[in-house]
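Hey, I was hoping to borrow your eyes for a little while. I'm sending you its amino acid sequence along with the backbone structure tokens. Take your time with it, there's no hurry, and the full record follows here.
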Amino acid sequence: MYQTDPPIPAQETLPTMYDLPSEYVEDAGLPDEFHLLQPRLLTDTFSPPNYPPDQVFVASDLNLYYDTRNPLWYKRPDWFAVVGVSRLFDQRELRLSYVMWQEIIAPLVMVELLSPKTEKEDLGRTLREVNQPPTKWEVYERIVRVPYYIIFDRYTDKLQAFQLVADRYEEIDVSSGKIWMPGIELGLGLWQGSFEGIERLWLRWYDSTGNWVLTPVEKERKRGDKLAAKLRELGINPDDL
């Protein structure tokens, strides 16, 4: 293709999410149950109060395309969130993937759930060969420039967090088990509790008061408890209704 003056934008010349593969063809198996439940809890409790719901996009196991020179290169984060972007692509379609040259806005936070197979790459301890795609760490830190990179090892319950400072990730002190993100007025922390009937240590979002953000199920249960209490005040046994 000949260079034009002015250059044609990448949005017009490079493949769109409709043209790019949306399946992880190298992975023959499905994620384990933790990799299904933990992202669901993150999604259920991610509700930044300073952004309307239609300006928040979250995803898990969705291809993230990032390189205009190599448009088929991608990473597949376990979970990520973007704020200030339409919930729907072009305000009308569910996304097949997240394509940086189409979306422009980078994810605010990436979460990787460690597994023995991916641990070294997730932690930036692998080297890539010439002409090979960069590692996840390089993509998140230097190319996409994701402000917060969170890593959780469910086997050891170890939490690690990194924040982009200038052009490099710096590790955040997580001795408290919590990371506050002022730009979205939310924090991410370790919560011991039961989710989907499984009791363990989970990653979960909390609000500015330090309270854990309720899931839709918990909100409904809380609403039902308040209604039942009100009925009892009126002398009505809700169990008889």
Remarks:
- The chain has six helices and twelve strands.
- The first strand starts at residue 56 and ends at 59.
